[in-house]
Design brief:
single chain, alpha+beta, six-stranded antiparallel sheet, two-stranded antiparallel ribbon
Length: 275
């Protein structure tokens, strides 16, 4: 499966239908559309990185949180997110009642406890981690994004082999699956070494299947990282999230719709004049 298709399902790839380049008024309109979309995308990115917002973190050792094999890990429940982030809905039955979404840690040597945290968003974990960081930042891999996207959508089923499925039913089965998922993410993010992993485990199979699925791609789709800090700016964890399409894409859809309406009106006027 193509990673770009997984995370941008429904967004057409390639050029406009018919393949004929626009000219005249259409070309000028397209130029304005591209410029507006690019500016919106830039503004979206700056907003996400520069503005600190808040969210609540919870855990539930009876329903979805693992005690961890190599350290404290997920799943974590996220709720009460302030303005600035509206994640797409998770797959049916994935989010626990009262949570906006569930997530996992990226850094094995940082801690997290239930409470309220400030968050900033980027494509990398910051200021921690066992391995993989350069100048304090550790961009997430395409394999991590691919695996997390499958899990988010409730589609982590028979991945990497028959029976290698995430148990989404809350309780002991899900807690066991959460342990395997956390280990898989830590392996993909260089927080665990290959020799630390049980090669017969489901988590190891998931990690290898994700690496195989993305190949040499560096595309992380719409998976991002939330860096969490406390009210005193103390560093805590970095966790994963899916984000909706940026405003630029929505502007694009609106402009394309407007172009269609204008074209229809012009065609009708031309028919009237010819008559």
């Amino acid at each position: 499966m193509n990673a770009r298709r997984l995370f941008h399902d429904g967004v057409p790839e390639g050029g406009p239908p018919g393949g004929r380049p626009p000219s005249g008024t259409a070309a000028r309109f397209r130029t304005k559309f591209i410029t507006a979309a690019a500016l919106a995308a830039a503004c979206f990115g700056l907003t996400q990185v520069a503005r600190a917002e808040t969210l609540d973190v919870s855990r539930d050792f009876d329903n979805y949180t693992s005690h961890g094999q190599f350290g404290q890990g997920g799943e974590w429940g996220i709720s009460n997110i302030s303005s600035g982030l509206t994640p797409p809905s998770m797959g049916s039955g994935v989010a626990f009642s009262g949570n906006v979404f569930q997530t996992f840690c990226l850094e094995r040597n940082e801690t997290l406890s239930p409470g309220t945290y400030n968050w900033t968003m980027s494509n990398a974990a910051h200021n921690g981690g066992v391995g993989g960081a350069t100048n304090g930042a550790d961009p997430i891999s395409a394999a991590t994004a691919y695996l997390f996207g499958l899990w988010w959508n409730g589609q982590l089923t028979n991945f990497g082999g028959s029976g290698n499925s995430y148990d989404y039913s809350f309780g002991s089965g899900r807690i066991s699956s959460a342990l395997q998922m956390q280990n898989a993410i830590w392996l993909l993010e260089d927080e665990l070494t290959d020799s630390q992993m049980d090669h017969s485990s489901v988590g190891y199979a998931w990690a290898q299947a994700a690496l195989s699925a993305v190949g040499s791609s560096t595309d992380i789709g719409n998976v991002r990282v939330l860096t969490l800090t406390d009210s005193s700016n103390g560093r805590h964890q970095d966790v994963l999230v899916l984000v909706p399409l940026p405003p630029a894409a929505m502007i694009g859809f609106g402009l394309m719709s407007a172009m269609g309406v204008v074209g229809l009106i012009r065609r009708r006027k031309n028919r009237t004049n010819l008559a």
